[in-house]
């Protein structure tokens, strides 16, 4: 309170009393901090100035201090803080350091009631420079009252001050709570602070509805882009597929015209040579050439059939297998039958690669039947339901032990081809009871088989 100290006494409770040029000061240590309270002429002292060496503590605890205006003595135990905290009132509200009127024609920039009567305050986003004035309601030394304030949502802790004016510039949109409390001259604080809930509205482009619109627009744009991209990919795939089919058609046609003619000429020349030669050593060679030419012709038919995109379905694949089997068993003692073939199978797509694997797998089974089974009858049954294809080939031949046949190259080839097309192959056979092969797989709409469960 004052830098000039004339005397210093300690009372019975450990408090220090100092006489100064600015009155009488009481100093005590409480809760880890020093607290100082000053008493002046306004508190009843004869004057604010004291004399040097004019201080004394009596045996009964009285403290005596002398000054130019007389003697001051008192019992420190009688000096007790004033127990009643002051009230507090908000006295003014400003926006950008300009007073805000109450009511008026421009309601957007006016208050509906005095600021002290309001518990809530709602402002636009551009009304973000706020100032408040307040006052402690105390008739006892109001000039010595202290204040503390805090804006929840911005201030991390209470701010203590002796000023009655606070400002908050450039507040962001959001919700805040202004809290202000006051203490009397004896530092007795209000139990409950004065509160004012403040809402600064966001601009229209930052409202929840605006963010929802942005999110919806972004989501819609993303969905549109994904669909556009998928459409583009599908179009590009259709173009590439058309190009592939066109290439396959041209290749099949060109191969048929070029290689087919050459093979036909070789077969004709071989037949002419066989009819004209009488050399017994040359006839076996010509017969072997004719056999190889026939095998080459059959292989070429299969190759051209695989290249032809118009055959890329299950129905045409099974037709090819049926025609091959009929021709294959034509001059044998085995009677072949096939059932279950239906035109609706044409709607089931099957890629060229998988058509070829299926044809070769069945050919291997038919060849084994003709060479080893000694059967009288062979039967191929096909069943299609909900994309699940089930092929059952059975002969009434002598049968075999699958455990021994599994090591043969033919069985290994069939298992490998079934794996390629994602099918499950099962072989059932016992000596003297014939042989049954079951091939099961699931085909997608694009003709790519899925492993059967």
How many β strands by DSSP?
22
CATH fold label of the largest domain: Heat Shock Protein 90
Named CATH architecture of the largest domain: 2-Layer Sandwich
Span between termini: 94 Å
CATH superfamily (homologous) name of the largest domain = Histidine kinase-like ATPase, C-terminal domain
**SSE string, helix = H, strand = E?**
EEEEEEEEEEEEEEEEHHHEHEEHHEEE
Helix amount: 25-40%
Largest sheet: 6 strands, mixed
Query: Cα-atom Rg, whole angstroms?
Result: 54 Å
Give the class from helix and strand content and strand pairing: alpha+beta
Unreliable segments of 5+ consecutive residues: 447-453
Number of helices: 6
Form type = rod-shaped
SS strand fraction: 25-35%
How many separate structural domains?
Answer: 4
Mean pLDDT over the residues: 87
CATH class of the largest domain: Alpha Beta
Note down, in words, how this protein is organized.
The chain has 453 residues and is of the alpha+beta class. α3 packs parallel to α4 and α4 packs antiparallel against α6. Strands 17, 18, 19, 20, 21 and 22 form a six-stranded mixed sheet that branches. The C terminus is likely disordered. The protein is rod-shaped and about 165 Å long. The chain folds into four domains: 74 residues, no CATH class; 120 residues, Immunoglobulin-like; 103 residues; 142 residues, Histidine kinase-like ATPase, C-terminal domain (Heat Shock Protein 90, 2-Layer Sandwich), CATH 3.30.565. β1 and β2 form a beta hairpin.
